[in-house]
Design brief:
heterodimer, A: mainly alpha, Globin-like, 0% strand, B: alpha/beta, Ubiquitin-like (UB roll), 6-stranded antiparallel β-sheet, 6-stranded parallel β-sheet, 17 strands, binds flavin-adenine dinucleotide, binds protoporphyrin IX containing FE, binds FE2/S2 (inorganic) cluster
Chain lengths: 122, 323
Amino acid sequence: MSDSLYNRLGGEAAVDAAVDIFYRKVLADDRINEFFDGVDMDRQAAKQKAFLTMAFGGPNNYTGEDMRKGHAHLVARGLNDSHFDAVVENLGSTLKELGVSDELIGEVAAIAESTRNDVLGR
Amino acid sequence: MPKIVFEGQEYLAEDNETVLDCLIRHDVSVNYSCRAGVCQSCMMMMEEGTPSEASQKGLKDALRAQSYFLMCSFVAGEDIRISRPGKDFQSMETGVLALDKLSDDVLRVRLARPENYSYFPGQFLNLQNPDGVERSYSLASLPDDEDFLELHVRHIPGGKVSGWVHTALKAGDRVTISPATGDCFYTPGQPGQNLLLIGTGTGLAPLYGILRDALRQGHQGDIHLYHGSSVMEGLYLVDALKTLDAAHANMHYHPCVSQGTPPAGIISGRADQKALEAIGKLDSWRIYLCGREDMVKSARQKAFLSGASLKDIYTDPFVPAVD
Ligand SMILES: Cc1cc2nc3c(=O)[nH]c(=O)nc-3n(C[C@H](O)[C@H](O)[C@H](O)COP(=O)(O)OP(=O)(O)OC[C@H]3O[C@@H](n4cnc5c(N)ncnc54)[C@H](O)[C@@H]3O)c2cc1C
Ligand code: HEM
Ligand code: FES
């Protein structure tokens, strides 16, 4: 139990491996892709990386307040629990594709879950 | 308000104003064209202050390391001091060798290659008209085999630079060009990777360079070139490309026309759509997209969704200038 989740997943290399797969799933998912329309792909890919680093328990400086502010414009456009669930689902299937164990996937999902109220502005 | 110090003068930037907008508002004479972080004509060196990541996007590592940045992509949060690029990165004069029509509205411009002018086929340079207005044009020539710089310039009626090229420029004239820049070019190292090249209009210019560079370097994987135009007259270098196709078993040329019913041998439809339909999955392909900005953007997303990795998609959007 000495090593952090982030390191057990493989650190930055794991994030890099996951980012294309995850972002592709999100863009192809009609439940949520409207939220990602019109955003520059390079900027968006960089943000996906930030998202994954955070969900993997890696180094980041985001606070709950940042998550609120960062998604407030999306909440105004109707972001709700069903969209949140879809993102978590895509995250899980990405990790599965990469051969990550169910146990670690559960830990990642728990981190994502802990941001739900902030992301949804509640 | 942050202060911008440039050539001994101080300029106060307004909130959220880019450095470029601030200098233009103060009538300072500086170069720029796209105002979108693409053409690099507004590049300066930051003597004091720290360039943001966005303002260094697309710059070569050597330039980043020397604190070069793009003024149109930087809003100063603190006082900065900037200066014009060093001598190696400044524009230079060269002579026009020849102008030849490639189609009704595309002119092939060959310029004498200045001494030590280094570039990769597919990169672009900024060409200035006599009023100092500059625009980007892509390099179709091969530095190792050809001692000229070749551009394909489409005539935009009333266009400040393309209009001048088409109506006034003559062989023997002197013109001012920037060093070559841009990251849309062939890199060796994966000779077996399949390449998909999609271009509309003069988007063929960089692709013609990239294609011939890849063949010259002995690329082994398949190379598919889709060149699109709305009308037949917009296709050019058709014979040269057919010849390359016939000479190389792995090179496949697919001319496409989107309006009307084209003759046999020409695909009916948009180049990007037809290419993505025909090839399907793009896992482990390398893709080059050049030409109209809207085509490049949408094809990039579609290629990514079809399995291509973002780092394997090279783009050259011909973003129009904003004067
Ligand atoms: C990286 C890069 C590479 C490029 N490579 C090439 C190249 O290899 N060959 C080439 O021909 N061009 C290329 N371009 C486009 C070129 O830089 C100029 O934008 C183009 O030649 C028009 O400039 P202009 O001064 O003639 O027209 P401007 O004076 O800028 O424009 C005149 C009018 O035409 C409109 N206009 C501008 N572009 C278009 C267009 N495409 N279609 C319809 N209307 C338009 C403008 O909005 C304006 O109203 C490239 C651009 C970039 C950013
Ligand atoms: C699962 C919990 C989530 C976490 C931990 C998370 C985290 C993040 C992070 C770190 C950023 C980058 C912020 C920045 O640097 O600017 C971001 C941006 C973004 N997120 Fe989330 N996010 C979550 C859920 C969602 C959901 C459910 C959606 C929509 C379906 C979403 C859509 C976006 C969008 C569109 C952006 C970019 C905003 C913009 O630039 O306009 N996120 N998120
Ligand atoms: S990159 Fe700044 S004006 Fe084109």
